[in-house]
Protein: LLM class flavin-dependent oxidoreductase
Amino acid sequence: MREKAGFENSGIEIGLYTLGDIGPDPLIGKTISARQRMKEIIEAATLADEAGLDVFGVGEHHRLDYATSSPPVVLAAIAQMTKRIKLTSATTVLSTVDPVRLFEDFATLDLLSDGRAEIIAGRGAFVESFPLFGYDLNDYDSLFSENIDLFLKLNESERITWDGHFRPPLRNSEISPRPLQNQIPIWVGVGGTPESAIRAGRLGVGMALAILGGNPIQFKPLVDLYRKTGTEAGHDLENLKIGVTGHGYFSETTQQAKDEFYPYYSNYWSYVNRQRGMTSRRMSKTDFEQLASQDTALFVGSPQQIIEKILRQYELFGHQRFIAQIDIGGLPFKKVAEGIELLATKIAPIVRKETSK
Structure:
């Protein structure tokens, strides 16, 4: 299925990510175990690598209805089953993890994977990790700011002296192991706030845009702000990389994709909204049709429809990476595998060709 993949592809990078949600299949009412979910995640990553996709991401949640609380452990297992695909967290809840431990875990992953480790850092839509690890939710933003600044310093030097507010100081401390890459690539996950885009630009790290619905044009001001802040801070424009993330489902025809995905997508938002303490009502078919329409950011459709949506966003953002979440709502793994095949063979080649011009 593949010739040369991974780092040798031209055009934008195409990949997948999972949050490891464990939801009931709405058609049969069955919920798989965390063990089975983990096996399916590793199998999905293996298929993505074999098919020539560029990136695979694993998210972090600390709840019984999610299987992946430790992305570097899961990614290390994936590293042993894959050869070329880049391995990233999606996302790391940076406010509630010690940056030194985070760096050492991903440096270890980088060595195990021959230089394929990356991090997408975010503040998280869920807050269970704050009481779980002894952090005050009132320090939500301050923790993130201090931790990413420290992480970037750890990335630069094998010995560090540092003082901060939330963890003990470091005095000429050895930070080991060092990654195979010169530095571990880090992106900041941005959901829609200008402050996050400004921070990513100021630091000169990548920006991963979470565009889960609506018209993507509303995110254009964030992209412009990121690049403007980054260049004003002295960073080269070519190093200010943008990734776009979104939900997706692919079938041979757009109508087939909508018909098959609707019960799962409705199911997904029903239990995610409950998890977040929000009103949970079943998504109507009319609401879903609107979310999946041609000008929106929900990637549901035929390969041609998905290609057009990705390229439309590329015209807006000029981004370097697109990664889709296609395993949500209790979707059977057979359908996930079919989606990976379509993304790799019918969608990615044309998108890469068009974006390499």
Summary: The longest strand covers residues 242-250.
